[in-house]
Amino acid sequence: TNLSGWGHRPAGSLGPVSAGKDGHLYAGGRRIRFLGVNLCFSSCFPKPEDAEKVAARMAKFGINIVRFHHMDMHEFPGGIRARKRPDTRELDPEALERLDHLIAQLKRNGIYVNLNLLVSRPFKGADGLPPEIEPLDWKDRHVAGFFFAPMIELQKEYARKLLTHRNPHTGLAHTEDPAVAFIEINNENGLIQGWLGGDVDRFPEVFQADLKRQWNAWL
């Protein structure tokens, strides 16, 4: 069984994916329906010879989109972050090269891409943040990123480094490539969710004081 002929190749050749007025997804005026899978942690960065096989096998089974998930949690080879650094701000060149190659192979086989930005990045004091962030659970740290300006800037920095660099295998930045169908900005998170769950109440004073200041200014 081979369902790869059901899609179009390369992915993005019909134009960028968009939402129509009817709420359905379209590629170049044609309805498109996605059947996708997650790749997490080290599976986002296969060796080049494996990437070609993975992409072809996914296409064979009718998969036409891949979600790149939890890339930001670990240093390479478990994630996209640079090795042996005290901070979380740099991308590993080998990880980026492997990711670029896999995306190019997926595109060639008619498979679109969903890139996740903030999933499980463990922000640290070494990133230029208050050291009080260190005792917090990694997911709780993300809640502060909705209002604490230095964390917002760190997220912008990561997005720029990942999305605007040019993929040498496609000649396009991810911001330019119609095969990149979706960008998820923040995974399973919210300020109100953190407040209802009691996470905000557990924040160190440096974060609570900043939130109170902004809240009172807004009032």
Overview of the molecule:
The chain is of the alpha/beta class. The protein has helices at residues 48-60, 93-108, 138-144, 149-163, 191-196, 205-218; strands at residues 17-19, 25-27, 30-31, 36-40, 65-69, 112-118, 166-167, 172-173, 180-186. The strands form 3 sheets. The chain has a 4-stranded parallel sheet with strand order 4-5-6-9, with helices on one face. Strands 1-2-3 form a 3-stranded antiparallel sheet, with no helix packed on it. A hairpin with a 4-residue loop joins β7 (166-167) and β8 (172-173). α1 (48-60) packs parallel to α2. The radius of gyration is 19 Å and the shape is globular. The relative contact order is 0.15. The mean pLDDT is 97.
The chain-level structural class is alpha/beta
Task: Give the neighbour order of strands across the main sheet.
Answer: 4-5-6-9
Task: Please provide the ordered H/E string of secondary-structure elements.
Answer: EEEEHEHEHHEEEHH
Helix percent reads: 25-40%
Distance between the termini: 61 Å
The largest sheet, given as strand count, sense and whether it forms a barrel, is: 4 strands, parallel
